[in-house]
């Protein structure tokens, strides 16, 4: 027989063996169909129980826009004064910051460990975040001092599992999202976070402007050059306006475009009951078929003989 004939014969034999293998698998599946049905029923039951017993998680989202338009109008006069003072302005902590950098700073503060822990402490969230370790009746921890949750653990849990902050690079819109088992608390936390970050950035702006004004006033008292005094006076005027703006503006860092509202009780983000109810039978059928096929392969005479050898 030629070499090409041998190859064709081997290909036919291999194809025939594959067909026999597929037929055997189908026979094995049909022979054990009741075990597969049982597996479908059990897995579907587990998924169904999970769908109705897992604590639902609700989502509240607020949409924000950076509130930097009012501050940008002061940058022109501030830039001209800075050009004359140079290093003195740097010592005073006065600089022209872009709208983007101001927003980046506010977002960084919003997600920072210090700010988050402050929010957790002010809202007394430790017992809620770790409710399984908290004795509400006795108002104390159920566990010993070594096993009590720490502030660092609370920050990681809140930052990784509960709060999510996203910014659309095209529109600049910022979304603050809270996922929590209590839909009312989720909404309150989202709105309170926004209010708190605006207050935080306001306080920082007021403190910075006040410190700059104090430094510039001391320099003004010791400066006799008319041009320098004029530039310092303009800087002081700008800083006073910035402090006034921060004092009277409630939405200093972010303006609320769409306030967080309470989700419907029938609309949790997880678990997805319908998805679990549909996935249960399919997953159970897949497990059952794979298990039957694997058991059939192991029990084949050729395989058993190889294992014996």
Distance between the termini: 35 Å
Give the total of beta strands: 6
Poorly predicted sequence stretches spanning 5 or more consecutive residues = 5-10, 303-309
- List the strand order in the largest sheet: 4-5-1-6
CATH architecture of the domain at 58-258: 2-Layer Sandwich
Please bin the fraction of helical residues: 55-70%
Briefly characterize the structure.
The protein has about 300 residues and is of the alpha+beta class. It has 13 helices and 6 strands.
Could you walk me through the main structural features you see in this protein, from its secondary elements to its overall organization?
A hairpin with a 6-residue loop joins strand 4 and strand 5. 21% of the residues are buried. This protein has 309 residues and is α+β, with helices and mostly antiparallel strands. The strands form 2 sheets. Strands 4-5-1-6 form a 4-stranded antiparallel β-sheet. It has a two-stranded antiparallel ribbon with strand order 2-3. It is built from 13 helices and 6 strands. The C terminus is likely disordered. It has a domain of 201 residues: Bacterial polysaccharide co-polymerase-like (2-Layer Sandwich).
Helices and strands, with pairings:
Blueprint: H1 3-31, H2 33-53, E1 58-66, H3 69-72, H4 75-85, H5 87-91, H6 99-110, H7 113-122, H8 126-129, E2 134-135, E3 140-141, H9 151-162, E4 163-167, E5 174-180, H10 183-221, H11 226-248, E6 254-258, H12 273-299, H13 301-308
List keywords for this structure.
disordered C terminus, four-stranded antiparallel β-sheet, single chain, 6 strands, alpha+beta, 309 residues
